[in-house]
Amino acid sequence: MFSNNVNRLEAHYQSVCVNQMADIPILNKALEVEAVGFVDWGHSKDQSEVEVGVLITPWFMNIVLLPKDSMRQEVRVGKTVNILFPDGEYSFLTQVDADFGIYLTCSLFSPMFDFKTQRDARETAAAAMAQLLQTEAFKQIKKDKAEAQQLIKDQEVLNKASSRRAFFKGGGNAC
Questions:
Q1: Are 95 and 77 in contact (CB under 8 A)?
Q2: Per-residue pLDDT tens for 95-131?
Q3: Rounded Cα distance, 52 and 75, in Å
Q4: How far is CA 20 from CA 6, 12, 89, 107, 175, in A?
Q5: Helix/strand/coil (H/E/C) assignment for every residue in 90-126
Q6: Spatial CB neighbours of 89, under 8 Å, sequence gap ≥ 6
Q7: Are 132 and 125 in contact (CB under 8 A)?
Q8: According to its UniProt record, which protein family does this protein belong to (predicted)?
Q9: What are the residue ranges spanned by the domains of the chain?
Q10: At what angle do helices 136-168 and 118-133 cross, to 10 degrees?
Q11: Beta strands in 24-150 (DSSP E)
Q12: Which of 2, 42, 132, 168 lies most in the core, judged by the most C-beta atoms within 10 Å?
């Protein structure tokens, strides 16, 4: 389903979880390592430069940018890089791992105790990706919510007008 790069990231953090984080108290034991919603992002010469998605672990949830090739030399580890998405500009921290290489992360949640199930975390990650990329589905959901709120407001106005008419005609019980 995902690219080799995303699968490597997921496997890397699964190994970290099992081998380095197992007894750390900030782990949410209800969660597991999972990559969510990774897609190609950024283009140069008809080729995407990175993959972007959300990485869930029992101790954090981050937006991750994975370079398809090696990260450019001007990127320094620990440096903040601002990346523009349809939703706006996000600050990413440059990370390096001896086993995995250089990649960028933007923290969404840490620690992860607010999530009761993996499904809750996965749905939150998917919603974050939809908002980040302003997908058509996300735009439709926002439009539907706005329309539903307008219907509620319209109904409230109609109810008030109807109540006033009834009151003035003597149809309402004032006492």
A1: yes
A2: 888 776 789 999 999 999 999 999 999 999 999 999 9
A3: 17
A4: 20, 11, 33, 20, 70
A5: EEEEEEEECCCEEEEEEEEECCCCCCCCHHHHHHHHH
A6: 82, 83
A7: no
A8: Belongs to the HupJ family.
A9: 4-134, 135-166
A10: 90
A11: 34-44, 47-56, 61-67, 80-85, 88-97, 101-109
A12: 132
Question: Residue 108: what residue type?
Answer: L
Distance CA 131, CA 85 (A): 10
Q: Choose the weakest-confidence range: 11-15, 86-90, 160-164.
A: 160-164
**Residues 44-92: tens digit of each pLDDT:** 555 567 899 999 999 999 999 998 765 554 567 778 989 989 888 999 9
- Nearest-CA neighbor of 139 among 86, 100, 83, 70? 86
The tokens for 43 are: 């283009």
15 — pLDDT class (breaks 50, 70, 90): very high
- Yes or no: say if 9 and 66 are a contact pair by the CB < 8 Å rule: yes
Q: Please, which residues bridge with residue 39 across strands?
A: 52
Q: What CA–CA distances, in Å, run from 90 to 64, 99, 119, 145, 165?
A: 11, 26, 25, 25, 53
Question: How far, in whole angstroms, is CA 171 from its chain's centroid?
Answer: 52
